[in-house]
Amino acid sequence: MLEHSLNLVRDFVNLWYPELCLACEEKLVRGESQLCTSCRLELPMTDFHLIPNNPVEKTFHGRVRIRRATSLLYFQKGGAVQNLMHHFKYDGHKFIGEVMGEWLGDTLAADAVLSKCDGIVPVPLHPTKLRLRGFNQSYWLAKGISNQLNVPIYDDVLLRSEHSESQTRKSRYNRWENVRSIFEVTKPNKISGKRVLLVDDVLTTGATLEACAQKLHEVDGVEVCIATLAYAGK
Questions:
Q1: Sheet-wide strand order for 69-74
Q2: For the chain, first and last CA: distance in Å?
Q3: Cβ-Cβ contacts under 8 Å for 15 (sequence gap 6 or more)
Q4: Could you report the per-residue pLDDT of 95-143, keeping only the tens digit for each?
Q5: If pLDDT is split at 50, 70 and 90, which confidence band does 38 have?
Q6: Taking the model in full, what pTM does it have?
Q7: Which helix (H) or strand (E) holds 227?
Q8: Domains of the chain, start order
Q9: Among 23, 91, 129, 151, fewest CB within 10 Å belongs to which?
């Protein structure tokens, strides 16, 4: 009886203030959360976790040692994934990160290497940007992955020590110059001899992830894997 009454209240509220899909912005129906069923089925999956030497891994060839790497979705300008990412990062819908992180975690569970990481390292934000945004999007993705793989989050081992400029309009080289010396490892003993999963929201040129991985490799015996929600590379 109580559940029926709550459903009636939700239906009444949705009539005047409908919850919208964060990808296509159509109304959600009962039982749907964050994303409509249609978008869940139509989002462009990469299946990179099934492909050795996939495009994400090739991004880092000759740049930094990466054991395995993958992305869940293809990113295209003006597409559903871009809408989803915008709502996630800039409209405060941080819980979509956890939901999508769980989806990403499901794909990682199918890979013998990616599923056996000892800890998850979200790419950190500088404290200034963290205060402005209110949350670190990479942490919420890591939270979803952690839920699925039962692997701890090491969100205190990598520090962003400088507040760099936005990467959005920079070339590949300028992106690297912008981030190559702004990360520090604060607790090397926590990751020494371990395989860590470095997590970020979108991979474009890979400059930020490369800088993070290079710094993690300064710790003895560290093996780095990478997972991102979306892939926007060429």
A1: 69-74, 223-231, 195-203, 119-122
A2: 54
A3: none
A4: 889 989 999 999 999 999 999 999 999 999 988 888 888 889 999 999 9
A5: confident
A6: 0.82
A7: strand 223-231
A8: 1-41 (no CATH), 43-231 (3.40.50)
A9: 91
